[in-house]
Amino acid sequence: MVWDPQAEYLAGLVGCVSTPESQAEFSSWVESQGFSASGDENVHTYGLYGSGAGKLTAHWTIVERLFPGCWPASRQTRGDCVSHSQRNACLYTIACEIAAGRPDEVTGEIEGKPQQPEEGVRDGVFASESYYWYRQHGGDGWQCERAARVAVEKTGAFPRKPYPELGFDLTKYSGSTAGKWGSSSPPENITAYGQKNLFRTAARCESFETVRDMLANGYGITSCGGEGFSSTRDENGVSRRSGSWAHAMAYSGCDDRDEIKAKYDGPLVLVLNSWGKSWISGPRRVLGTTLDIPEGSFWARWSDVSRRSAIAMSGFAGWPAQRLPNWTEGIF
Prior knowledge:
Strand content: 15-25%
Helix content: 25-40%
Shape: globular
Number of helices: 13
CATH architecture: Alpha-Beta Complex
Largest sheet: 7 strands, antiparallel
Structural class: alpha+beta
Distance between the termini: 45 Å
């Protein structure tokens, strides 16, 4: 029998939960690293505020141009949505970092594309399983805050490819591989390998403006919440609220244009799900452009996702403004 994630979540599967304890723990940990846990504070401190105002932020096109066919990747086969959302947020950040060509403030290195088989690229570029190994329990379900901390402390990014020296193959997603560890942590040699590509820090996004401006500067966002959505998009790729899912999904775009706000009573956020292509149908064309959103994704009204926990991932030592290529120029 094929495992149906949509049916499982509608039936009450708890894939994610954001608790006051996990949020307080996250804030305390970020501050102990010398950063602010507040995305609102960071966008002002680093001069990012307003950089996405009134614009369509379509940096998912950067990800898709660098890694053709990478989204939506394999459909999850267990309740490990938090790790899929974390991977997608990290992929967004890494792709934008590569496109910006900006040297790392700590190492001085310029990020490049990993060497891996095409099959690995088509399945999300980086593994989701390696994050899930550190959830610290043997069942399913996790918190976005704790997954973000794992990406900074334990394992940054495992490119999807074979790892004979470590005893496993991550080329293709596997729910059983995701459950390989949990109540116990992976061996030290695996953690040591994952620590070669750690993220610098993470921050809570407390407002739409912070979500908008983080995405505009190339910082991917993972989100946890209980909102469900229709499996049919409207003529502009927007999905309406429907039902409840305790589910994590990444944000990979934002539309703050005036015509969008007039039509939908506010701005939109592009939501990337981890249920493959076929769970949702309907048009994917972005209003007034020749762009299509990724398969398996949908636009959500900000008012429908504003209560979700949202965590932005930084690939650098802080949150610098990034000069990203405008690969959407001329499409309007």
